[in-house]
Amino acid sequence: DTAVSQTPKYLVTQMGNDKSIKCEQNLGHDTMYWYKQDSKKFLKIMFSYNNKELIINETVPNRFSPKSPDKAHLNLHINSLELGDSAVYFCASSQGQTWHFGDGTRLSIL
Amino acid sequence: AQSVSQHNHHVILSEAASLELGCNYSYGGTVNLFWYVQYPGQHLQLLLKYFSGDPLVKGIKGFEAEFIKSKFSFNLRKPSVQWSDTAEYFCALNYGGATNKLIFGTGTLLAVQP
Questions:
Q1: Nearest-CA residue of chain A relative to B32?
Q2: Do A90 and B42 lie within an 8 Å CB cutoff?
């Protein structure tokens, strides 16, 4: 069973489009995250939710809107995609000091 | 602000060579420290972690790390690398609190030549 699963694995789209990435965890963790890994492999936190409540928003453009319908899901919607949004987006969950990461979604903007 | 530095961006070794990857952090309080590995095209996997106690921590796949508080360091070591260790290695810290997040270093790409 995959602990943290995100879909799609690959996303290729054009500038200006709107797209969503979904994430689900079956670990019963209270906290979920979105991280962005850029072309230089740097991992930076974007958002964190704890029991459906937003607790971290790291100066991410308003075009990015996370949504957590329940504590097992954290989706990421991106409006008006730009070239600079090309990256790998990782979902993660945590409970205490234990983190699990998804396999990532590689977003490519044409 | 809290940060993690990995000074080696790219390391190339031959099989059986010894490995040491540097990690320094900036935070004056109590920290939890981690090393993660990312194999090509895969997600992050935990190698080892340090919370407290013995500063020499042993992890999976023969890796170990030493926490030196006075140097704000948590260097990763392996006595003899294998080709399969080729991957990106990330040091990370967490200092707890209300915003429980992992702060990552910039990563070190290790290439092991057979």
A1: A97
A2: no
